[in-house]
Amino acid sequence: PYWNTRAPVHARWHSPPSSNDQIFVIPYSKLNMYSSMILNRNITQTFEEWLQVQITDLLSHYTNYENITHLFGVTQDAFTDVSSFSKLFNAVKKTDTFIACTEDEYVHAKHYLGKMTPRELFTERLQPRRAIVKTYHRRPSKRLIENAKLSLTWIHGYNGDNDLTKKLYTLPENEILYVIGSICILYESKLKQQRFYTKHNNSITR
Predict the structure, then answer these.
(1) 64 dihedral zone (left: phi>0; alpha: psi -120 to 50; beta)
(2) pTM exceeds 0.85
(3) End-to-end alpha-carbon separation of the chain, Å?
(4) 186, 177 in Cβ contact below 8 A?
(5) pLDDT in tens, 87-126
(6) Where do the domains of the chain lie, and which CATH numbers do they carry?
């Protein structure tokens, strides 16, 4: 079979997911390799765009920029087809390891991964898998730079100098609203997540 031509490796499901949502992505065409990234929960792209832009670029060293279109979560007992951000965020509660494949590879991957467990594919007798390239050492591709869009993920600090904007407001949805510059921040304390209202062009004064 296709996967028998690759050197099997340790799967990352031996350790729980990290608290900062670092995930490890294995290209289906190179199952003895992986690359890692920090999962951004505030991403504005669709799941399909995220796969085809960010994951394609992440694994481009081994896939020659073939579009990544599908993702499988690797848990201790099974491979799970991940087809949306909601499924991805649920999956990272159980695993930090995923297998990415192109559209051409997907039919093959779905057929064979559905017939085996990760323990059968990743044998513990062999050497651990090797990192492709640490993402923070890599220069982004020209295509990724041309299509890049800035997005807010977290705002640090609080402006308490202005009497009109130093107030904190509690909302029914268990969020706290406050202002910094031209941005309204809605902070959910239990989930430790921020949302932003960014439609103001000038500093908010009241």
Answers:
(1) left
(2) no
(3) 65
(4) yes
(5) 999 998 888 899 999 999 998 988 888 888 887 777 643 3
(6) 2-146 (3.10.20.230), 152-206 (no CATH)
